[in-house]
Every structure is written in structure tokens, then in C-alpha cells.
Amino acid sequence: MATATLTRVPASTNRGVNQSIADHSLARLARCTTSNELIAARLRAVNREWDVERGLQAWAAGVVVAGATLAATRDRRWVALPAVVGTFLLQHAVQGWCPPLTVFRRLGFRTAGEIARERYALKAMRGDFAGLGLDRGPGAVGRAFAAAGPQ
Q1: Binning pLDDT at 50, 70 and 90, where does residue 54 land?
Q2: How far apart are CA 40 and CA 24, in angstroms?
Q3: Average pLDDT of 43-71?
Q4: Which end of the chain is less enclosed by CB atoms within 10 A, N or C?
Q5: Distance in angstroms (rounded) separating the CA atoms of residues 67 and 81
Q6: Rounded Cα distance, 29 and 121, in Å
């Protein structure tokens, strides 16, 4: 079940968008190759990053609150908005995809697995896994990213 959770969003995302997200991760890793301070700063940023699931949940909650408020204060037809968003969340829970997910992925939201992959690549470059040949040097970014696992 966990594997399905890790792969369902990338599997339903355009291949070009997935590649763009991976390319951006590699570029961020490449900028950190010169010092542990840069790696530490990037790790702090990665640890604060929202994954696509959290972003989708926050967006949906905001739309539901707005729709319910508008239905209560303006026109009861606004109740359709929370109903549509609820349907999107149900669809995402069952299928791993919903229409807003495409927008979130194009905006650069990553899955928890993609974020974890960058985190562990950074730790490997810092030397946390010393002796595995993943620390700095020619090709270190690619080795660390590959060792951190598939997307």
C-alpha cells in the first residue's frame, strides 16, 4: 500500500512535469556541493516545504470555508463549491488524481517521496553516509540523487 501512495501522484502527472521537478531538485543539489553550510540551509528549507498532499488539503479547506461562508451570507447556491471540492478530494483519495493536482504539480509542488529523495541526497553529500562513495567529488550530485532512490 505504501508503494502505491508513493507512486500514484507521479504516475498521474505529465512526464515532462515530473522531469522538470527532478531537474529542479538536481539543480538545487548542485548549488550545495561547495559547503556544509549550504547543505544545512537547503535541508532547513526542505524540512519546511509543503508536499502536494498538504497543499491540496489546505487549498480544499480554504475553498470549502469560502463556499460555506458565501452560501450562508450571500446565496445558497454557493454550497455547490464545497460539494465540488469534496468530490475532488474523494477522487484523489480513491484514484490518486484530481483536476487541481495537475495545477499543483505544474506549480512545483512535490510529493513527500520527492522531497525525501532530495533530503537524503543532501545528507549523503554532507557525509552522513560516509564510506558509501556518495560524498563530494566529481559526479557526487548524480550519485547521491540516484542512491536516494527512485522518485
Answers
A1: very high
A2: 18
A3: 97
A4: N
A5: 5
A6: 8
pLDDT at 79 over 70: yes
CA distance 43 to 28: 11
- Residue 52, number of CB atoms within 10 A of its CB: 24
Q: Which residue has the cell 552522513?
A: 128
Q: Tell me which amino acid residue 88 is.
A: F
- Give ∠ CA 97-59-151 in degrees, rounded to 5: 45
Which backbone phi and psi does 51 adopt, to 5 degrees?
A: -85, 170
Cα dihedral 62/68/71/73 (nearest 10): -90
Sign of dihedral through CA atoms 53, 59, 65, 71? negative
Write out pLDDT tens, residues 92-148: 999 888 999 999 999 999 999 999 999 988 998 888 877 665 566 666 677 777 777
Do the Cβ atoms of 29 and 149 come closer than 8 Å?
no
pTM of the predicted structure, to 2 decimals: 0.84
What's the rounded Cα separation, in Å, for the pair 4 and 128? Answer: 29
The DSSP code sequence of 82-123 is HHHHHHHHHHHHHHS--HHHHHHHHTT-B-HHHHHHHHHHHH
